[in-house]
């Protein structure tokens, strides 16, 4: 199942990309290629439409954050951006708003693989939902919307950040978004 989802890597050197590729291949993921420049990575992503693009902040011709903006902004694929803590502090606000997942280096293989697995599971759920023609029940949508509104008001955040928080907590806790939304609503009632 894992090898049916394509991953493309963007790193400053083929050696660094090879290390990440090796880690992913060992766990059964399908790595479709390694690009060392941002322009090459954007072209490849537009052409092959991978499920996930993993980008190192350092690339040969630009920084990975700019490439992540393009790929995420065009909704080509899910994006994981690997960066230092200083880089993370500069970009974390807008990356989370765009749904870009930032991971601070040095990455821990187990956490990294867990994040990739979670994203693939999310993609698989979305594909199953589309294939079945089903959508989220109206009651669930209303609960999630209410939780989003509460988060936006109480945490002073944008709508897409509120949704992303609910979605991320759902993935991390392996609980449906409906249950996470109920918990958020109940926590603000107290």
TrEMBL record:
SUPFAM superfamilies for this protein: CheY-like (SSF52172)
Domain Response regulatory: start-end pairs: 6-120
Protein name per its UniProtKB record: Stage 0 sporulation protein A homolog
Domain of life the protein comes from: Bacteria
GO process terms (BP): phosphorelay signal transduction system
InterPro entries: ANTAR (IPR005561), CheY-like_superfamily (IPR011006), Sig_transdc_resp-reg_antiterm (IPR008327), Sig_transdc_resp-reg_receiver (IPR001789), WH-like_DNA-bd_sf (IPR036388)
Pfam families: ANTAR
Domain ANTAR residue range list: 124-185
Any GO molecular function: RNA binding
